[in-house]
Amino acid sequence: MIGGAMNIIEMKDIKKIYSETVLKGVNLNIKSGEFVAITGASGSGKSTILNIMGLLDSQTSGEYLFDGMNVRNMTDDELANARNKKIGFIFQSFEKFILKKSSVLDNVILPLVYSDVSVCKWRQMAEDKLGIVGIKNKINSSMNQLSGGEAQRVAIARALINNPAILLADEPTGNLDTKRSKEIMEIFLRLNKRGVSIVMITHEPEIAAYASRQIIIRDGLIVGEEEEL
Ligand SMILES: Nc1ncnc2c1ncn2[C@@H]1O[C@H](COP(=O)(O)OP(=O)(O)O)[C@@H](O)[C@H]1O
Ligand SMILES: [Mg+2]
Question: Which residues pair with 201 in a beta bridge?
């Protein structure tokens, strides 16, 4: 595209109203390949923004273009397809989203069950992603044999299984100690170098510092921005 990289995220005057107005007119563009941190106090609307970005929720008003497509014009099938193939989600409470009694392999390949990728490729794909997060040797382990940090790596490997264009991470280190948190950030940096766009919510300044751009949100509005020079 002429004039720089394409925006994977374009939000124009996004408002979200539940019983009260939670997002009050968010304007935000994120270029393909960026690593962005969103910071702000609890209740400021961070998760609400991320859920709209990830097509898990829709705005009350305003315009949202995901990867150039106006989400208002997308069918449910198109939305589900984009969620499954273009977006990888990582949450703080990964325990909720993993099958504890299953193997690492079964957890990582779960998104492929709903895809048209042939079964014979699944194991290799899982090995590739587990290699990226540094726990390929655990592929046959049961989830309940893993530490919290290892379980979060499995969650990242699963989020990567369809080679998403963007990773959306909501407090990905919220349940981890400093050492494990840094390890997860090193993985994010490696992924970002490979071209994966990342939007990460965190309230920890030392975690936000890993991003190349930091956005501050207060009471449903973007109030500040810092860019690494
Ligand atoms: N599904 C919902 N229904 C009603 N209110 C909600 C819902 N989700 C979030 N909220 C409210 O919106 C505000 C912002 O929430 P959230 O986006 O989760 O903030 P943050 O992630 O910054 O802590 C809070 O006041 C919260 O109670
Ligand atoms: Mg939140």
Answer: 38, 170
Instruction: Kindly report the pTM of this predicted structure.
Output: 0.93
Residue nearest to atom 24 of ligand 1 (CA): 43
Q: Is residue 220 in contact with ligand 1, taking CB distance under 6 Å? A: no
- Distance from CA of residue 56 to its chain's centroid? 12
> Which residue from 48, 44, 69 is spatially nearest to 57, judged by alpha carbons?
48
**Residue % of the chain over a pLDDT of 70:** 96
Question: 111: CA distance to ligand 1 center in Å?
Answer: 27
* pLDDT band at 94; cut points 50, 70, 90: low
Which fold is adopted by the domain 7-227? Rossmann fold (3.40.50)
Q: Which atom belonging to ligand 1 lies closest to the Cα atom of 217? A: 22
Q: Which protein residue has the closest C-alpha to ligand 1 atom 12?
A: 22
Q: Mutation test of ligand 1: which of 38, 47, 202, 218 has the most ligand atoms closer than 8 Å to its C-beta? A: 47
Q: Tens digit of pLDDT for each residue in 147-188?
A: 888 998 999 999 999 999 999 999 999 888 999 999 999 999
Q: In angstroms, what is the span from residue 47 Cα to ligand 1's centroid?
A: 7
Q: In what order do the strands lie in the sheet with 221-227?
A: 87-91, 166-170, 197-201, 35-39, 213-218, 221-227
Domain boundaries, the chain: 7-227
